[in-house]
Write a structure and sequence with these properties.
This protein has 196 residues and is of the alpha+beta class. The protein has helices at 25-37, 122-131, 135-139, 149-159, 164-172, 176-195; strands spanning 2-8, 17-22, 41-48, 58-59, 62-73, 79-96, 102-108. The chain folds into 2 domains: 2-108, Roll (Archaeosine Trna-guanine Transglycosylase, Chain: A, domain 4); 119-195, Methane Monooxygenase Hydroxylase, Chain G, domain 1. The longest helix is centred in the last third of the chain and has 20 residues, at 176-195.
């Protein structure tokens, strides 16, 4: 499967929403093609380099498909799009085209079937409910009812203020139960840092 890549300084998770302003020609063209063919593109985290200009020097090999859910012309003349995370993938090879757009051969990663939440997830579900009241989260229409462990883990991993490398590790985890346990550990570390 060939997928155009959009390297960013963020990690997108399945089911999560991201607003982007598109102004570089390579990405305006890419978005146009995606909208015409009702296809997605891949969001990968930048490891080395910048979002703007030439293709980044290095990006994470595991990313998330982005599906365009809405678009509008911004007052500044740029194209604004809202995407939603789809399937996770692993990049097997990539090449930079003459227009500096990176195109990759990817393998889709299998996500486990959704598992129901258990009592031990009550605190994390309550935390997501509290996050949903934040204006930024509300504007993305996230943080409402969750379908299960996978949904809860993805939304928390995306919304909580973890570092880029920590979020990338969470994205690469296949088991939602393990991902939720890791989120709990990261939260405890965050609380420890705040009280120190």
């Amino acid at each position: 499967m060939t997928l155009p890549l959009f390297p960013l300084n963020t990690v997108l998770f399945p089911g999560c929403r991201l607003d982007l302003q598109i102004f570089e020609a390579r990405y305006v063209d890419m978005i146009g093609r995606c909208m015409k063919t009702d296809s997605g593109f891949g969001v990968v985290a930048i490891v080395e380099g910048d979002e703007v200009g030439s293709a980044p020097g290095e990006f994470a090999r595991t990313g998330c498909e982005a599906r365009i859910r809405d678009w509008q012309q911004r007052p500044n003349g740029m194209l604004g799009i809202r995407v939603e995370g789809g399937r996770r993938f692993r990049v097997s090879s990539a090449q930079v085209q003459p227009d500096q757009l990176t195109v990759a051969e990817v393998e889709w990663l299998d996500d486990q079937p959704e598992k129901p939440l258990t009592v031990e997830h009550d605190d994390l579900a309550t935390l997501l409910g509290a996050l949903s009241l934040h204006p930024m989260v509300a504007s993305l229409e996230m943080g409402g009812e969750v379908k299960g462990q996978q949904d809860l883990a993805c939304q928390l991993a995306y919304l909580l203020p973890f570092g880029l490398a920590q979020k990338q590790v969470l994205l690469e985890m296949d088991d939602p139960t393990v991902r939720l346990a890791r989120i709990q550990v990261l939260l405890e570390q965050l609380q420890g840092d705040l009280t120190a």
